[in-house]
């Protein structure tokens, strides 16, 4: 594994479009903190803490973390769809430069579907069960654009065709007449036909079998390139995120552990949690199965004080009782770990075994 100094050089040379320099982000989260609140509005528990990242036009960014790490709550806040029991208590969400908190509920509703679209894990929830798909798509088009019925129908049919469905038949079908894969493709059509700047795809393939999941992700990737929208791809599957995204962020216990270009994180993860996640994945190309690391401790075990990963981290040291700040390692690669300040990377690499012990690539 390279040293940090070598790595910094590598990170500088990573080419991820021009977005680091001149292009404004589509979505920018700064210091986003979300808490559950009681009936009186008093904070009960912080679920997402000081999360910050940006997504640029035309890029797919991954948000990965185990169950309960705060991915969907973060996404719901971006959509303006937090339940009443949750509230943004600090930080800012900006879409195309507009602070979403400055908008009225009516303005935010208008943004949903038109500027931000959501693709759910539960594709059945994307459609009303007893209305034909075509009628629902046409209504969606006409709720955002004042176009004649025939034009809305043509848009709906075109998009059903673009997601590789038999457009005429699906247009006339009820949701229950379609397979899971077909429904998820129809929901991609519903999301993309409004030409949103941002699509949030929250575990879009988890409920599908492997083949249908791959087809949906291939489609999303292709149509994203064609429409140049930004995608926040949320998954608990590190392999999917490594394969599909140009940048990624790793969450644990409501905080970001590491973020940066996917290639840099794959080749030189800096946070112990990311390193262990990588270690815990089998290699597709390894000829001889290697030893996989099991992340110690209980999944989801977090400390309320200090580094949230401390209960499971084999490297914790005295300063870990304080929350580590996100620290720049390369130009756009950040990680939050006290070891980065204490020169502990050699200890960490030795203890974890280094993720280069197996030949092959990470899935
Ligand atoms: N409405 C709610 N009220 C109180 N707590 C909630 C609510 N919704 C989610 N939480 C809590 O917030 C935390 C983050 O949940 P979230 O759904 O964002 O996790 P996730 O990373 O999306 O997990 P998964 O991979 O299982 O979808 C969890 O501890 C969850 O129990
Ligand atoms: S800050 Fe401490 S406990 Fe947290 S990951 Fe780093 S070494 Fe481990
Ligand atoms: Mg979720």
From TrEMBL:
Gene3D superfamilies for the chain: P-loop containing nucleotide triphosphate hydrolases
Keywords: ATP-binding, Cell inner membrane, Cell membrane, Membrane, Nucleotide-binding, Translocase, Transport
Subcellular location: Cell membrane
Pfam family, one: ABC_tran
Domain ABC transporter: 27-278
Any one Gene Ontology molecular-function term assigned to this protein's record: ATP binding
Topological category with respect to the lipid bilayer: Peripheral membrane protein
RNA-binding found in the keyword field: no
SMART domains noted in UniProt: AAA
Domain of life: Bacteria
Similarity comment: Belongs to the ABC transporter superfamily.
Name of the featured protein: Oligopeptide/dipeptide ABC transporter ATP-binding protein
Organism of derivation: Desmospora profundinema
Lineage per the UniProt record: Bacteria, Bacillati, Bacillota, Bacilli, Bacillales
